[in-house]
Amino acid sequence: MAKRILVHTALAIGAFVSVFPYLLVVLTAFKTQAQLSSTHPWLPGTPPTADNLAEVFAGDFPRFLLNTAVMTAVLTAGQLVFTTFAAYAFARLRFRGRDVLFWLFVATMMVPSAVTMIPLFLIMRELDLVNTWYGLLVPYVLGTPYGIFLMRQFFKSLPAGLEEAARIDGAGALTILMRVMLPLCRPALGTLAIITVISSWNSFLWPLIITSGDDTKVITVALATLKIGIGVDYNLMMAGSLIALVPMVAVFIFFQRHIVRSVVLTGLK
């Protein structure tokens, strides 16, 4: 009993530490400037106000939210399509240099993304794609090494007999992929989709570098620019952060079973 109490106490403390920053976001978003300076951060403002949310929505924030949703949808669709084709080729098709090419591609996962930002920006500048949707999407819409590695390993775990039986029936490589392999890959596809949605929605560095106008600005960059004068309006920033958090919370609520399965499948914390 004592061990169980200690375990649950530790879990409760860990859960509180994890949830507390989000609680501060919610509480601060519904406070006025006067309440922010006169009350403790962990106490709600009395009475709460929705003026911060109204002020955020009165500006261009809805456009930035839509831009983020479009970017996330396009990147997720591109990842699922192109990553699946590339992973199937690396896992099942036979061609010269296949394994060498695959491991060279996977080796790029060891390179920090910040290292490739300047070369990517220079390439986009030479192609005249700076501050455009193409420049924002092209570097990541065609798949990532991690996604290809994940799907390739899942393809290799499927029984080869299924593919051989389909070939005996006259199916080609594309038919086998679409009608035999993909229905069996739903757990891996769900994992890849969830990871891509979360990473795309929270993407900051590349959108900050490649975009400068409001037409392509995403919500993370917009939050960083919510400043007045030489200070920061924390009430507006927390209101914007709350709006940005709502879609991710909805994803967690509706797809928590898939998120848990993705953690088991990938081994990620």
TrEMBL record:
Predominant localisation class: membrane
Signal peptide feature range: none
PROSITE patterns xref list: ABC_TM1
A matching Pfam family: BPD_transp_1
Subcellular location: Cell membrane
Residue spans crossing the bilayer: 7-30, 64-88, 100-121, 133-151, 188-209, 236-255
Family: Belongs to the binding-protein-dependent transport system permease family.
Membrane topology: Multi-pass membrane protein
Ranges where the ABC transmembrane type-1 domain occurs: 65-255
SUPFAM superfamilies given in the database record: MetI-like
One GO cellular component term: plasma membrane
Keywords: Cell membrane, Membrane, Sugar transport, Transmembrane, Transmembrane helix, Transport
GO biological process: transmembrane transport
Protein name (Swiss-Prot/TrEMBL): Multiple sugar transport system permease protein
Keyword hit for Membrane: yes
Source organism: Nonomuraea jiangxiensis
Keyword Magnesium listed: no
